[in-house]
Each structure stands twice: as structure tokens, then as C-alpha cells.
Amino acid sequence: MTTLTRRRFLTALTGAAGLTLTAGLPGRALAFGEQNLVDIAELDLGDGTLSRPSAWKRLLYEMVQTTSVDTKVRSARVTPEDPALFEHPFLVLLGDGAFAPVSEEGIKQLSQFLAYGGFLFIDDTTGREDSGFDKSVRRMLTRLFPTRPLSFLPEEHSLFRSYFLLREYPGRVNRFPQPEGVSVGNLTPVVYSRNDVSGALMRDELGQPIHACVPGGEAQRREAVKVGINMLMYSLTANYKADQAHVKALMERGHLE
Amino acid sequence: MMEWWLGGSLAGAGELVWLTRMPWSAVAVVGVLAMWVLGLLGGRSQKSRVLERILWTLSMAGLLLALLRPTWIAQEGRVVKGRLAVLVDRSLSMDVVEKGTQRSEAVADIVERLKGDATEIYQFDGTLKPGMPAAYDGAVTDFHGALQALADRKAGERLAGVVILSDGIDRGALRAGWKAGEEPEPPRLPGPLTIYQVGSADKVSDLSVVEVHAGGFAYIHAPFTIDAEIQGTGFEGRTIPVELLKDGGLVASEEVQLDAEGHGQVSFDVRVDRPGRFSYLVQVPTYSQDAVPGNNAAPVVVSVVRDKIRVLQVAGSPSWDVKFLRRFLKGDPSVDLVSFFILRTHEDTRRRYDENELSLIQFPYEQLFRDELATFDMIVFQNFDYQPYFGGGGRALLENVRQVVEEQGHAFVMIGGDRSFQQGDYQDSPLESILPVSLQADAQPSIGPFQPQLTDAGKRHPVTRLVAGPEENLQWWARLVDMDGTHTGLQAKPNAAVLLSHPDLKGSDGAPLPVLTVMEAGYGRSMALSVDSSWRWSLSEAAQGHGNQAYLRFWKGAMRWLIKDESTHRLTVDTSRENYSVGDEVRVVVRSRGEQFEPLGNVQVQVDVQGPQQASTTVTTNEAGEAIVPLDLDLRGSYRVKARQLQADEEALEVEAETVFAITDRQPELAEVSADGDFLRWLAARTGGRYYAPDEKGPPLRDGDADRRVFDRHEVPVWRAPLLIAFILLTGGLAFLLRRRAGLR
Lengths: 257, 745
Hints:
CATH class of the largest domain in chain B: Alpha Beta
Number of helices of chain B: 16
CATH topology of the largest domain in chain B: Rossmann fold
Oligomer: heterodimer
Distance between the termini of chain A: 45 Å
CATH superfamily of the largest domain in chain B: Class I glutamine amidotransferase (GATase) domain
Order of helices and strands of chain A: HEHEEHEHEEEHHH
CATH architecture of chain A: 3-Layer(aba) Sandwich
Number of domains of chain B: 5
Number of strands of chain B: 39
């Protein structure tokens, strides 16, 4: 397990690249408490679900490079019944096939997790209209939120401006223009993408992309990274960007109508 | 002597009246006949028989006369003059001093001139009573009410005249209607009206605060206006200083230029930074010629309430701790939250993104920390380092924070993180004076997990009171998950209270390292939480099936304590009104409530009244949790009532409460003091009466037809006159003796 603080990132980066990016920047002490650093944990539902730690390491790396968020690269994988679930407020579920129904205990714990501040990002890596994973996801969400349907997120949703102003929402593919989500009040604890965002983020040991992004190539991958950052930032700030000050400033800049 | 024998005097004109009708006379006739027959019985001389019959006849005739109850009635007539009702105004304005003399002194002279056998004296203010006023202290003057009361009292009687002695400052319907240009109808009087004006408009000099308005209540931190109306008779055209005092201290002063009629208005802009009742007093100077010093000040009590609790949350970086605090604050409907998170620093530019791709906005730090800071009840620095953002003006902006906390009663919270406390370079900054902990500059954070320990103060303090029961509260804290790392090198200030401490580490003073510390910082309050993992009290608690109550209760309690939320107080003290006049009974109501806000009876409460008069008492609450303390106060000024619960449960909190009210000797009657001759003249004319100016000494109007002839009735009951009784007995007795001498029975 490695703690990746901002300062360590910068030191490693500048050392490797021979640059002096940190010159003149304010010094910062070591962040205290690993538990408080932002990480990503995968939800393990057995067959049909996947694990792509390199995608999340990349996302956390991009997060540190781009935002003020301090992260910890930690490869965690939890089951719905595992109390450790509550140590990781940002949870991802990705897969390419149908998965077995979650146990009652798992549903109960997932419900608690989402009700008390946890966030679940679901990524269908097939990129297909008709996938077993999609059916399983919908079945699971119906059990988690019997009265709250999965629905497309509107254009004004904070997710699309939590850090970047997103006009499209691609992953490895760009087939589904809008993500879906389950909203409770003005918060959306579950976001569901079917464009294989994690596929666009995955890297090999040499740091090279594993999958090609279609049809947009590297430009599309760049947008997929922005989607990932927005997702993580939304989980941290929720509807912060819907606050009046932000809306007003963005409207003045012509980014919002 | 003769009058005695006759039962009274029968002299003069009169008539004899027989009071008895039948059947007594018939009975008497039968009696006479019976005696006559009795005289026929028995053998004796004719002479004796005749004599006995005569005697019996005379005796029975006398008896018959007595039974007919003859009465001599004589009547003597005489003329009585019509009565004069004199109504004396006994209101406060009659004691106004004009050129060194009280108006009421003129009353005695006029009444003396009017006095006679047929003079009835009444006094009036809001009511009418017989007799001269013992004191001129009536709170109002009501001409219509007084005249109507006289008319009712004298219904069917004709008076020779009705006289009013007054300065004409009627506060009833008559003058109000007349001033409004109407022709109000006075009550129908039993006699012609004469008015003697007492007091003169041109002799009086008086400066007064006529009215003060503040709108009743105001919102905390929001400016409101106190308007005062000034009247200066004899001060026309002059500039007068007007002062606004709060709780006895000078708040502001203004000058007002009185117009040609001596009228002026002044406004004070006021802002209050904490909720509660506040007593203000608007006052003008008391000059030597002032007729009524008592009307130179007018109080107004304003209730200041919260609209919403405005919270400013500034975070140096998004984090789970930031997320959960925002989630709590945003979810509280009583909170108006303004969040600002630093999403990108100067360091975060290693990925090249066009600015148009970003939804970032400038940190409006000057707007927040210079222009709008005073609008926030609570300011939260959450893992926020100010230096990279505040630039060269950083100290000035932090000084603003210190000012609103220490001087205006706002709240400040600093939450830990690698950008906070010493790591944010707050040592020796203006904020250090309001932080409850002092900072050791070179101390590095501790990164180890630990379970915070509830201190003795923490066991009692509302911030760390998660549940009501002390034991249960301890259990709650014991089960909470570990915190992950903390700032070190902290030392609680002498007037601070450490509520949570580190189980192993020591502060720079050798005491257990403070983790959660609170302090009264000037008028405000502050809190230092040296960890950045309180969010785990929410999510990790949920993992154990406890929900997020510990987190919510902790922050709710912290927020309420920080902003001094009175709604959570279990002991309250209140009065039904804010402003009282001298003589009014002030009823102080004390209410005691339990942990669950249920009424708490049999609680002893010490009530202390502080102000121009002091009072102190101990009361016990009833079953409804209430106790009433009546106060009899007669000195003008602001009063503060402090209530303190005695024999409080050791664990009980908030056992003190206070409120304010005001008492003034400024009576509405004294709002204007210039005698109103015009009104008196109109009233006299309206009733066909007569008006006399202050220096005129004419007689009152009299109705000659009101004089009346009365008869004195004299009755002499002749039927019981000793002479008649003696006659009956004598004649009857002689007749009886005559029969006995003849041997008869």
C-alpha cells in the first residue's frame, strides 16, 4: 500500500522529468491520516464484474496533476457485505457480464453506504446496447432504490461542471451521450455510464493506454479523463457547483445559459 | 307644654288628615253601642245611668278618634338655587410647570370663587369622581368621557351650570375629531357649559421625545432603523442633539433641526449581531426651562431574531471531511450555506487545459472576507491555508475575521488538515487570538490513529453531548472510530475548554494534546478541531448500524453552541411586554424544561433584577414548569432580569437565562404639554357655553330655570297625643268606677 500525497507526486514527477515545477511553490507538510485521502475501491460482485486498478491509479494521478485534491493510490476491492466498504466513500462497479444478485445483507449495507454519503460509479465496459451487465445493474438498482428510478442526468447536473465543463460524456466508446443516475433530493449517489470510462483510463506497466478509444482516438481519451475527474470531484463536492455563486460566474462567462 | 299634650305643634297652615279608613270606625261605633247598652243594665238611679252612659260615650268617642289616627300635616315651601357642577382636570399635564408655577395651582383660586352651597366638585381624567384632586397624576384626559359620565349621573336633573377647569389637552374623541376638522358632538349636558382655561401655550418650554419606532423586531446582522419624533415647544428652529443608548451605553448621536412648529425627526441606523431583546433609549437634553423632564426620553425594546444561520465554509481542498460537513450544513434547513472550495492551486497546472474547459471561478476572497464577512454567523476554515490566496492583504482579511468574532459576536471554527493550524501558518496571525489553542510553530502532525478521549469538561459540554444520559454519552464516544492523525504542538488557552484530548500525546504545556477545544472569544465563540477525519463518525458509524447520528449530533451541537442558539436553552425568562409605564405591574415568567424539553416542575430559580431598582427573589416552578414573579418598579430605565436555576443537576446545561425590558415615566399624557385654548374655545362655542382665557375671571353661565321650590313637610300624629289618651282613660275609668259604686260589674 502506497501513500501518494501531493508533495510526493510532485517530487517524483519533477525528479523523473528533470523539471523544476515545484520551484517557487509554497511548501506543504505531509498530509496526516491515510484514511482521509481520496481513493477508489472496486465493488466485487463476482463473475460478470471486473477489476481495473490501473484505470483508477491513472485517474487518481490525473486528479493530483489537475486539481487540489490529495489522493492515495490504493488498490482496494470490497464486497457489498464487507464493512470495509465504509472506508472508501468512492466506490466503482465495473463489469462486462451479468452478475449474481447481491445478497440481502449486501443490499442493506450498500443502501446504508449510499444513504450516509457514499458514492457509487457504475461502468458498463461492454459499450453495447444490450449487455448482461446492464440488466444486472438495473435489477440491483431497483432493489437498492425501489421508489427512485434510474434516469438520464439533465444537462444542468453538477456532474457536468464539477471541475470541467463537459459537453459530451465519452469513455472508450462514445455511444451513450448521457449518463444515468439515481437522485435522492438534489444529490445523486449513483451514476451509471455505459461508455466504458475505465477502459479509456487503463494503462499498462509502461504507462501506455491499453485500449483504443473509438471513434475519437486520443482526443476522446482526453475527454474521458475529464469525465473521470468530474466524477471523482462530484463525489467530493456534490452539488457545490450548483451554488448560486458558481452559476452566476459561469453565466457571466457565457458557459451557462 | 301644650305641644307635648297635643303630640307636637299644630301652628301654621296645615290640614288634619285621617289616616285610618274603615273598618275601625264601624268597630268603634259598635263598641259605643255596647257600652250604651251596658249602661242600661243593673238597678240604680236614673242620674247614675245617664252619667255612666255619657262617660262611656265620651270614652268610646275618644277611642274612636284615636283609632281613626288623625294627623296634622303642615307644608312649608322655599326656593333652592340650581347646582353648579365643577369638573377639574386631574391629568398629569396639569402639573406642567409654566414660568416656575404648576398649572394646577391656578385651579384652587378658580374653585374658591365658584364655591357655594350649590357647588359640586368633580375630578376627571379617564373617569369622573367626586371631590377635588389630591394629586394631578391622571394618565389620560377624556373630555367626552367625563361629560358623558356627568350627564348620566345627573340624568333628569337640571343643573345651573357645568364648569370645566383644564389645560385643554384632551386625548379623547372630542379633540381628536376637532383636530381632524370634524365637528364632533359633545354629550348632551344638564346645564350650560363654562370653561376656564388653566395654563397657557406661550408660557411653556418643553422638549420631548414624542414617539420612537423600531418596527418591533429585527434580523440579526441586518441593519434596521430606529426613528424618533422630537417636539420642542419653545425650541422652534433650534438644533437639538439626540442620543441613542443601548443598555445604558451610548450607541449613536444625531442632531435634529426643529422646524417652525418645533417638530423634528431623527433616524438611527442600528445593527445587532446576536439574537435577543435589546433595550434602546432615545433621549434629548434636559434644559433648565424644560416643563416636563420626564418626557425627554423614550425607550424602545427591539427583539432581534435570526433569519437563517449563515455559514461560510472555506476549504483548501475537496476531501471527504469537507464533503461530509457540507452535506450536513446543506441538509440543515436553518442554515444558509456559502461554500468555497479551492479546486485548483498554482501547483495544479501540469496538465494543460484551456480555461474555457474548466468550470472554475475566481476565489472571491475580498468579497467574502471584506465586504460580506459580517453577514455570516459562523466562519469555518476547513484545512484552509490563507497565504496563497489572500496575497499581501492576508493579515488585514484575517483581522476582519478576528473583529467579527471578538467584537460582533460571530463564531469561528478551524478544522485540521495539512493546510491548517501551524501548517497554514496561523501562528502569530490575527486569528491566533480567537483560536482556543495557541500554536507551536515547528510542530509536525502526528499521523497515527487514535481514539479521542472525552475530558471532564467534554462530559458536560453541549458540543460533546451526543445523547442526554451521561453514561450513554460516554458509551457513544467510546464506540466511535479512531481519528486518523492530528495536529500537535497545540496548547489550550487559559479561558478555553478542552472537550476531547489525545490519549497519549501531550501538548506544548505537558497536558494531554487538545483535539477539540472551545472558547469564548470576546463577544463571539470559537472552536478548534485538530483532526480532519470527523467524517468517519458518519460513514463508519453507519457501517456498525448506528446511522450517522453521532456525526449529525456533534456538528449540530457545535453549531448551536457556537452561534449561541437560544432555542436550545432549557431555562428561559421573559416578560409579556418590552415596554412598561411607571405603575404597570411587570410579570416576569420563568420557564424550566427538561432534557426532552418537557415542563420541569419544582425547580428553584433565583431571579435577579438589575437596573435603577434592584430586586431578588427565589421562585419554584409549578407543574407546567412555570413561575411568575410580579415586580413593582417605579423608576424609569432599562432593567435586565437574570434567572439562574438552583440545585441544578450536575449534568444540567444552560441553567441561566436573561431578558430585558424598559420602564419609563414618559406618559402619553405628557407627549404634548402646551395648553390648547383653541380647542377649549371651540368646545364652549359648540355647546353654546362660555370660555375664559387663563387670565379672565368672569362668572360661569347659569341657568336660572334650574332654581326650584321645595316644601318642608311637618306631621303631628294627634291620635297618639297624650291628651287624647288621658281623655279616654279618664272617662272610661270614671264610668267604670260609677258602675262599681252601684254594685255592678
